[in-house]
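re the bet — no i am not wrong, look at it urself. input seq straight from the record:
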Amino acid sequence: MRSIDELSKEELRAELAAAQQRLVELTEQVARNDDKLRRSQKRELRLLQAEDLDALLKVLVGGLRASYQLEYVSVVICDPDYDIRHLLMANGTPVEGFPNLLMVESLTGLAPQYIALYKPWLGSFAACDHSMICPGASGVKSIAMIPLTHRGKLIGSINLCSNDPDRFTRQHASDFLAHLGIIASFCVENSVNRARLLRSGFTDVLTGWHNRRYLGVRLVEELARARRDQSGLGCLMLDVDHFKRINDTWGHAAGDAVLRELAHRIESQVRASDVAARFGGEEFIVLLPNTEVSSAKLLAERIRKAISESPITLPCKDTVTVTASIGISEVRPKSGDTDLKTVGDSLIARADVALYAAKSAGRDRVVIEGA
C-alpha cells in the first residue's frame, strides 16, 4: 500500500498539472480576447474615420462583412421622411448604389426582434423572421442583430449573417458587438448632421425648400433612374398669379410670408418621393418620378386648390387669397440619351411653356404641354 504522503504527492502533482493547464487556457483566452479587442477597435476606428455619409455606409456594409469574414451583412435604417435618402441623392449617390442597405419608412413588421431590440440579439437565422431585413442572404444559419439608436430610440440595425450555425448563438457574449452598435449609432448621427450642414447650400433660406442648385443635381439623378427603369418623369412648374401686387400693396415681408405658406401648402400635397424645389422668385418646381401625365394633372389640381382654398394671413394681420398657374411636362428617357442635363433642361423649358399658356388662358389653371 502507498503511504498517505505518497497519495498527497500524487494529488498535489495532479492539482499542479490541472492548475498549469488552466493557466495555459486562461493565457490563451486572454490572448484571444486581446486579439478580439484589437480587431474591434480597428473596426470602430474605421467607422469613426469615415469622411462622409457615403463612406460610412460603405464601411457599415462592405467593411464589416470583410472584417468579420461573413457571407452577408445588411444595414436597416428607418428613414420615414426620406431625409437620409435625400442627403444621399443630393451628393449624387442614391441609396440604390449601396448593396444591402435598406431604407424603410417603419421598422414595424420587418423582424420580431425590433419590438425590444435594446442590445445585440444573437441566434438562429429564421427566414420567416429575418428575410425582410436580409433579402439577399443565402444559406445563412445564424445572425447577430446590432441595434442602431438615435436619442434612445431604435432606428434600425446592423445584421451580421453567417452560414455557420455556431457563429452567433444566445450563449455568446455580445459586449464587443454592443460597443460597436454604440459607435455606429454615433457615427450615423454625426454623418447625417454633417451632410445636412453641407446640404445647406442646397436649401432655400426663405421657404426651407430645396433650391435650384439642388434641383439640378436631383433632376439628373431622377432622369438616370427613369432611363434605367424605362419609366417617365413628370415636371410641374408653378407660378403665383399677380404676385407683384402683393409686394406692391403690403411690402416684401408680406410677399415672403405668402411664399412660405405656399411652400407649406404645396408640400402637404406631394409625396415623400417627389422632388420639390423653389426655382426662383415665386416659381416652384415639383419632379414626379414614375408618374403618368394624367396622375400629374390630378396632383397639380390638388395643389392649385390647396393654394386658393383659404386666405393667407399676412404679418400686418390682413388676409389675401392667392391663386397659382401650373404647367406640366413629361419625359421618358431612352437608353441612348447620354446627355441627361440637356434632357432635363428641355423638360423644364417645356413645363415653362405650358405654364405660360396657363397664364395666357386666364391664370389659376393647369395646362399640359402640347394640350
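see?? The mean pLDDT is 88. told u. also The longest helix spans residues 4-48. so pay up
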